[in-house]
Amino acid sequence: MAPVGGTAVQDHVALAEIELCGELIIAASAAHEERLSLESIDAVLKVAEERNASASRR
Question: Around 6, how many Cα atoms within 13 Å sit in the side-chain half-sphere?
Fold first, then answer.
């Protein structure tokens, strides 16, 4: 239970993970196939974009 008085603490990592899970659920529900392919999962999670951003920072 959250403390009274509005002193909620946000875990930004947990919130980001929840958002990504939500994106995967939306993609899975809209997919025509029974399961998402690894490529589809990577596209939803923007894996290639993150890799490119990491590589350009080096």
Answer: 0
Task: Domain of residue 23: give its range.
Answer: 7-56
Judge whether 2 lies within some domain.
no
Q: CB–CB of 45/23 below 8 Å? A: yes
Q: Is residue 1 situated within a structural domain?
A: no
CB contact at 8 A, 24 and 36? yes
Instruction: Note down pLDDT in tens along the chain; length 58 residues.
Output: 555 666 677 889 999 999 999 999 999 999 999 999 999 999 999 988 877 887 887 7
Count how many domains the chain has.
1
The whole-model pTM stands at 0.66
